[in-house]
Amino acid sequence: MKNIIGRIYVNYNYRKKPVVVEAFKLGEHDIPYWFMKIPELIMKRLESGSIAFVIPTLEGNMEANLGDYIIKGVKGEIYPCKSDIFEITYEKLEKN
Q1: In the chain, which residues have pLDDT < 50?
Q2: DSSP letters of 22-66?
Q3: For 95, left (φ over 0), alpha (ψ -120 to 50), or beta?
């Protein structure tokens, strides 16, 4: 198959580098200090009675619901991740 400029499509595959990030599961783990210090962090109550957080990110505001993981990335960026994606992508490290 060719793309619009006549080149053949090629798949480029990549593997995530083994980096260590801090993370916690909202509603199951204790909330770390770095999360509560996020400027403009908004907590809201949903119609179901549950809570969610609106987290400002470089891509805009993102909502984190109970059961989502909150990740502090390698450059200090903070963003939510659905638990199924997180559990495929990351594994828990044993404490030293």
Answers
A1: none
A2: EEEETTTSPPPHHHHT-TT-EEEE-TTS-EEEEEEETTEEEEEET
A3: beta
Q: Are strands 51-57 and 60-65 parallel, antiparallel or unpaired?
A: antiparallel
Contact of 27 with 80, CB cutoff 8 Å: no
pTM: 0.81
Tokens coding 71 = 């990740």
- Whether the Cβ atoms of residue 33 and residue 41 lie closer than 8 Å to each other: no
Which residues, including other chains, have CB under 8 Å from residue 27's CB and lie 6 or more apart?
A: 66, 67
Count other C-beta atoms under 10 Å from residue 93's C-beta: 7
CA-closest candidate to residue 25, choices 62, 63, 54, 67: 67
Domain residue limits, the chain: 22-89
Please state, rounded to an integer, the average pLDDT across all residues of the chain: 89
Given a contact cutoff of 8 angstroms between Cβ atoms, the answer to whether 71 and 78 are in contact is: yes
